[in-house]
């Protein structure tokens, strides 16, 4: 991350604490985002989309229903991220905005890198290299792929709104396209 982007996100976190939620903590948010990512990715992999109603926006859920039904099994398996297999997490873009009706929103894009043992080819469609990590001896090696995902979390901060974060974007590059 560039120093400018790092400063900008820290400034937005300060604004969130000052104007929206005095108890907001990026560390706590990140822990919750990792848990949500793990749960949602596993449910996507298992095609249990009906269990995502409270976690994912209706628009995203509709798109997911169409895409998941077309995925080959190995790509679907690669969507699942065990929380212990998440190697790195970073926040991307942070946005604060108001709509025309005065409703206040905050959205935070989170990027996840995770290991997955799905049976993927060395190259996935789209000419993107999938990193592979071998564990164990040559005769019993276990192949893992280092995959990425981007999930955007949004929360409404208008007075009287539910204090829940909703996933408004899900991207698993080269797997869920």
TrEMBL record:
According to the UniProt record, one GO cellular component term is: mitochondrial inner membrane
- Source species, domain of life: Eukaryota
Any one GO MF annotation of this record: ribosome binding
Question: GO annotations under biological process?
Answer: protein insertion into mitochondrial inner membrane from matrix
Q: What is this protein called?
A: MAIP1 protein
Underlying gene: Maip1
């Amino acid at each position: 991350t560039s120093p400018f982007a790092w400063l900008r996100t820290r400034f937005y976190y300060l604004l969130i604490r000052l104007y929206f939620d005095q108890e907001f903590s990026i560390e706590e948010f990140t822990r919750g985002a990792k848990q949500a990512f793990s749960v949602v990715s596993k449910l996507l992999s298992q095609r249990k989309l009906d269990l995502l109603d409270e976690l994912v926006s209706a628009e995203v859920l509709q798109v997911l229903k169409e895409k998941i039904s077309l995925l080959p099994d190995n790509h679907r398996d690669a969507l699942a991220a065990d929380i212990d297999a998440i190697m790195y997490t970073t926040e991307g873009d942070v946005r604060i905005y108001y709509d025309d009706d005065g409703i206040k929103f905050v959205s935070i894009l989170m990027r996840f890198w995770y290991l997955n043992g799905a049976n993927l080819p060395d190259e996935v469609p789209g000419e993107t290299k999938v990193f592979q990590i071998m564990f164990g001896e040559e005769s019993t090696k276990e192949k893992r792929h280092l995959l990425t995902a981007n999930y955007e979390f949004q929360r409404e901060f208008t007075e009287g709104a539910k204090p829940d974060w909703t996933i408004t974007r899900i991207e698993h590059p080269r797997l869920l396209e």
